[in-house]
Amino acid sequence: MKKLILLIVLTVVTLPQLCYAEDEVIWETEKISYFHGVLVAPQGDILYNLRGKDLQIRRVDDGVVIDSIIMENIPNYLYQMSITDDGRYMAFSGDNPYVIIYDLQERKELKRITTIAYERDEYGKNVVYDAENWVSSSISPDGTKITGIVNARIGEMTNFVVIDIATEKVVFEQRRITYDHFNPDEPFYKWHSAEFSPDGKYIVSQLEFRSGSDSVYIYDANTFEVYDVVLNSYDNEYNSFSFSYFKPLFTARMGKRLIIYDLVMKEQKIFDLDGNSRNIVFSRNDDKIALQIGTTAPVIMDYKKGTVLDTLSYIGLPHISTKDNNLVYFGIGFKIALIKPNWNKITSVSDNNNGDYISPNPTTGDLSINFSNKRASFFHYDIISNSGLVVLSDDMGFLGKDNNNLKINISPISNGQYLLRIFSDQEEFVFNIIKEN
User: Fold this and answer.
1) Any idea which fold 5-340 has?
2) Residue range(s) in the chain whose domain bears CATH number 2.60.40.3080
3) Which of 21, 167, 412, 420 could form a disulfide with 342 if both were Cys (CB 3.0 to 4.6 A apart)?
């Protein structure tokens, strides 16, 4: 199994307030009691937030509540929600003995999945028992299955299950006994979370070992075979994964190490941080993440280069990015806010670490990309708008001496801010550029 582990020592400095990025607060809500989660609809115009047993529906543009759904006849709060690709169906779970499947279009509850049936020799055939509570759940992007972690049999078992929603049958399961009658001093040994990847091809789940070293098991979502295993660490504060919509990546953690795993390449980058990481949010259109490290203010980090770019000034924690790459925050005073972060500080020198830089920036048309080392002789570039559209692209070779200078003319595109992605058969570069008159 192919592994590429890259260790990068990352030093985080708490910057003084005057050095913070000028984050633009687009809107901020009133105080929200019993806030338990937030989710952006796939279409990008709607924002959902859980409030105890209620689902509030807000416009992304201004944060105004346009609807509210009250979940009837549930004993405890809801803590987790997931949504299908078409934005129609949602799954809810929490300290309740079922997963609720809800039709957002028809505004009605479809079903509650409560019982789990197994056919295993050690427990007899057709054993049926009720779930005590669902620690984690995730609906597949196509809406046909749910995956989750279920506590059952009076706390003796924790079960990782995949259930067909239409038939409510268990199509895959892995169980762990949480209490050993013969060795009662042994620590717990259980599943903690299980989620579908955004493309629905993988299921990523987390298992706590007796030795205290956890593993993330990655399954093929069609065959349920183990695709790969990643060692990480679990803490009770945060037990879900962060997935990227820009590349097939997700994050895990191992103490003060941040792990970014590539699902296609089966490779992981490991970053040594100054503290434990939390609230990791991927940028939607480049190689950046927002996260909190230790007790410092959240930062913007370039995970490809392993550098911290900026510190976020808004007090609170990032939760999710919108389609236009703004950050939904849970801030001071129990409020939700939408901020426009500076994902890329734009200067004439883009990368002090590698000595690679682009100038002039801003530009009226001509760009010169200077590399510190000699590069490949053939390159392709794409210029991408904030909405994700490729507005200009071309294939070209280096024009400068010693193959370390590339010149591009972007006069045909409109004024504005763009991403410039440069590819070769060896490497890739991403720059943030501004076109102006």
Assistant:
1) Methylamine Dehydrogenase; Chain H (2.130.10)
2) 357-435
3) 21
pLDDT of residue 12: 41
State how far the Cα of 89 lies from the Cα of 365, in Å rounded to an integer: 46
Cis omega (within 30 of 0) for bond into 362:
yes
Amino acid at residue number 298: P
More confident residue, 372 or 246: 246
Q: What span, in angstroms and rounded, lies between the C-alpha atoms of 194 and 80?
A: 12
CA-to-CA dists, residue 42 to 39, 182, 203, 292, angstroms: 9, 49, 19, 25
In angstroms, rounded to a whole number, what is the distance separating the alpha carbons of residues 176 and 160? 8
What CA dihedral angle connects 22, 25, 26 and 28, to 10 degrees?
Answer: 180
Comparing 358 with 265, the larger pLDDT belongs to: 265
- Is the pLDDT score of 29 beyond 70? yes
pLDDT at 182 over 60: no
Give the residue among 145, 60, 55 at the shortest CA–CA distance from 109. 55
Second-level CATH architecture of 357-435: Sandwich (2.60)
| Mean pLDDT of the chain, nearest integer | 80
Hey, what amino acid is at 369? Answer: I
- At 278, the pLDDT band (50, 70, 90 cuts) reads confident
The C-alpha atoms of residue 384 and residue 369 are separated, in whole angstroms, by: 17
The token duo for 411 is: 């006069």
Task: Output DSSP code: residue 244.
Answer: -
Q: What is the 3-state secondary structure (H, E, C) of 109-165?
A: EEEEECEEEEEEHHHEEEEEEEEEEEEEEEECCCCCEEEEEEEECCCCEEEEEEEEC
- pTM for the complete prediction? 0.74
C-alpha torsion angle, residues 309, 262, 48, 335 (rounded to 10):
-30
* Residue 332 DSSP one-character state: T
From-to residues of CATH 2.130.10.10 in the chain: 5-340
The SS3 of residue 76 is coil
Say whether pLDDT at 210 is over 70: no
Distance CA 24, CA 345 (A): 14
Nearest to 28 by CA among 342, 339, 343, 341: 339
Q: Are 419 and 403 in contact (CB under 8 A)?
A: no
Q: Is 228 helix (H, G, I), strand (E, B) or coil?
A: strand
